[in-house]
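Exercise: predict the structure of this protein bound to iron/sulfur cluster.
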Amino acid sequence: MDVKDRRKTTIADIYVQLPGRDCGITRPPSPCGLKKCVMFAQALLDGEKKMDECPYLDGEHKGAIALILEAYFK
Ligand code: SF4
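Solution:
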């Protein structure tokens, strides 16, 4: 898998762990400051956001995302 595909796949993997509320569209302003959860997934991967910035993300999903990020940067 090339770098671009790996990034896309990882963002998708993170995204499925997120609440999927897309608060910036469904109920603005969003607590994370972004329109959609997929943008939050990208920002997590890029280190621009922290998981705590989404108040709807529970510990189980945070743990899963931490493992995804760990594997990506390993
Ligand atoms: S606050 Fe959470 S649920 Fe809402 S858009 Fe951001 S990442 Fe998605």
